[in-house]
Write a structure and sequence with these properties.
Elements: H1 10-15, H2 18-40, H3 44-69
Helix pairs in contact: 2-3
């Protein structure tokens, strides 16, 4: 007996929404900006700001991943 895959389930439709992948892309871009600023200059204030931007981008990207996993 052959089973057909269920690709049209509600969780698959939610996981394939383009908004989630746009959120991940924005998170990656923000994190890349934080990494760039981290190595751009040797200033303690800029270093702290760049770490905050880096972790904010990582948080945004992880939020998108967890939306996919929670679908």
């Amino acid at each position: 007996m052959e089973q057909t895959p269920k690709h049209n389930t509600e969780s698959m439709k939610t996981a394939n929404e383009t908004g989630i992948y746009k959120l991940i892309t924005v998170g990656i871009l923000v994190a890349m900006l934080g990494v760039y600023l981290r190595f751009a200059a040797d200033n303690s204030i800029l270093s702290i700001v760049s770490w905050v931007i880096l972790f904010l981008g990582a948080f945004i990207a992880c939020k998108g991943v967890f939306k996919i996993l929670g679908a």
